[in-house]
Amino acid sequence: MRGDVYSFGILLLEMFTGKRPTDSMFNDGLTLHEFAKRALPEEVVNIVEPSLLTEEIARNSDGEIRVRTEQCLSAVIGIGVSCSMESPTERMETRDAVAKLCAARETFHGNRISYVRGEYGTGGEVSMRGDVYSFGILLLEMFTGKRPTDSMFNDGLTLHEFAKRALPEEVVNIVEPSLLTEEITRNSDGEIRVRTEQCLSAVIRIGVSCSIESPIERMEMRDAVAKLCAARETFHGNRI
């Protein structure tokens, strides 16, 4: 499980910095973990993937939106760093990582709502299933730009069901537009678009599998992390 947490931490840092542990800049003792750690807390906005910053945030040096964004990004990078510590015993627990990610999301949205399932806190195995559920919903939120409390979700339609219905052909139509580059939006075919659609479909499928209503049917966290890593490699077009 500590290995799962490490992989998750590195994946989180990759997603939010746009960098990979194998990039040429990481040498002479500088790792992705150390690179991110050095940026905490003041310089985080300078190391995150530029596409994650809206034009408004990039333009303005102050303002509530920028402050909340910086707080959120700092929290997420901090989680990635804590999960990818060299020593397994010093790494953050999975449930703590998920809880802190949810808190970071609420910091960004400026409110606090709990989407934790009822089985939470009733035992070790059951609690872990609750962690998986929260992680699945968080993944769907991040990639669709929608929240379980949005007005569109009523009459039996949930974020989980919304994402499930889009699999596999319509996924590109439900993802957050900012995740799609202009090249992908313009072209109806091509290797980059194909790899992007495969990656997005895999990520949405993981989110759906983690947020199934029945706890025993949910994907294991270690499997979710492994599949996310595989999706990342699909996108990059190689496997390491």
From TrEMBL:
GO annotation, cellular component aspect: membrane
GO molecular-function terms, A-Z: ATP binding; protein kinase activity
Every Protein kinase domain range: 1-73
Family annotation (PROSITE patterns): PROTEIN_KINASE_DOM
UniProt xrefs under SUPFAM superfamilies: Protein kinase-like (PK-like)
Protein name listed in UniProt: Protein kinase domain-containing protein
